[in-house]
Amino acid sequence: MKRIKFFIMITVLLTVVFSCSKNDPLVNNDDVILIPRTFSPDNDGVNDSWFINDQYNLIDSNHFLVRVFNDSSQVKVFESTKKNFIWYGTYQGVAQPMGNYSFYIDYKTWNEIEHIRTGALYLYIKP
Fold first, then answer.
1. What is the pTM of this model?
2. Nearest to 59 by CA among 20, 117, 13
3. CATH, domain 22-123, list 1.10.260, 1.10.20, 2.60.120, 2.60.40
């Protein structure tokens, strides 16, 4: 009986370690991208723009959308379908005021699972 349990345990362990299918639920999590929550576009070389970090390069570049809205969430101040976007805190070429903005990100990972992330970010203007 010990031999069967040992065989089953090894089989399960090898299946977990070496499985890499498109339906692998371990890849479907919200830690796929890193989303900064604040930036300061003052050209000092530190956090001058807002962008996401696809740290494991798992985002399908054919299905990506990001939108940023002003603090009243009525005006879309930025939109991109490129996963390597950069936003400098402007809208139609005009620098936006310091304050809270909301974002909406819709993307699919390489395993065709759709993710929708929403949240707030803060645009800080140094005095």
1. 0.73
2. 117
3. 2.60.40
Amino acid at 96: Q
Alpha carbon distance 82, 85 (integer Å): 5
CB 42 within 8 A of CB 48: yes
Strands 38-39 and 114-123: parallel
104, exposed or middle or buried, with CB in 10 Å at 0-12, 13-18, 19+? Answer: middle
The amino acid sitting at 73 is S
pLDDT tens digits for range 29-58: 456 788 999 999 988 888 999 999 998 899
For residue 46 the two structure tokens come to: 């530190």
User: By three-state DSSP, how is residue 74 classified?
Assistant: coil
- Quick check: 49 and 80 in contact, CB under 8 A? no
